[in-house]
Specification:
It is built from 6 helices and no strands. It is mainly α. It has a domain at about 60-205: Up-down Bundle (Four Helix Bundle (Hemerythrin (Met), subunit A)), CATH 1.20.120. Helix 2 packs antiparallel against helix 4 (about 120-140), helix 2 packs antiparallel against helix 6 and helix 5 runs antiparallel to helix 6 (about 175-205). The chain starts with 13 loop residues before the first helix and ends with a helix. Keywords: Membrane, Transmembrane, Transmembrane helix.
Length: about 200
């Protein structure tokens, strides 16, 4: 028997070698296992990277959209509340203007009014302010609701009462009672209109 790399035969010593011999291995060979290209590792890495980047981006996008919606709602509420406050303020100023002018007329003596130009000046000032407030009042309305139409009719009735007051140059009890009743009705209509507008607005928010 001959081993490769061994220059002498082991035939005559084969039995004795197998029974008593010791085989020493000095170096273990390197075993290389070729499993091909690692597509599964690459795909797993790519998916992990995409998911890791997508989740924070999705959260950020949701946060931006939520903040944008909250900002729009806040602006709309502010605009709505400002409009309601403007309606109340204008209506209050309009009614006060009517009553103040009536008291002014009642406090003046008819003869003094005829001789003094102050009445004419006050009347023009009153009419100017009345017209300004009425137009401002009407411009605030954004719809033709039943409540707004009722307020317009009540404003027209107050204008007719003002015409009587200017014509008679005296705040008679009849005119005063009519003005007081009309202003009270207008006040109730304004409250109802503002309540109705609040209900319509907040039902859509």
């Amino acid at each position: 028997m001959t081993w490769q790399g061994v220059p002498f035969p082991f035939g005559q010593y084969q039995t004795e070698l197998l029974e008593r011999g010791v085989l020493t291995v000095d170096k273990i060979p390197t075993i290389v296992v070729d499993s091909g290209f690692a597509w599964d590792t690459i795909i797993a890495t790519l998916l992990g990277s995409l998911i890791a980047g997508w989740i924070p981006g999705f959260i950020a996008l949701k946060s931006i959209r939520s903040n944008e919606r909250n900002t729009r709602i806040t602006i709309a509420i502010t605009h709505h509340q400002k409009r309601i406050d403007e309606i109340k303020s204008t209506a209050s100023e309009y009614m006060s203007n009517i009553l103040v002018f009536g008291v002014y007329v009642s406090a003046r003596n008819i003869d003094e009014i005829k001789e003094d130009n102050e009445y004419e000046e006050k009347m023009l000032e009153f009419l100017r302010k009345e017209n300004l407030l009425r137009n401002k009042f009407l411009l605030i309305f954004e719809n033709n609701s039943q409540e707004s139409q009722k307020m317009v009719l009540k404003l027209d009735s107050l204008i007719r009462l003002n015409g009587r007051l200017i014509q008679e140059r005296e705040l008679s009890k009849s005119i005063f009672d009519d003005i007081k009743s009309a202003t009270s009705d207008l006040l109730v209509l304004v409250k109802d209109y503002c309540y109705s507008e609040d209900s319509r607005f907040y039902s859509k928010v």
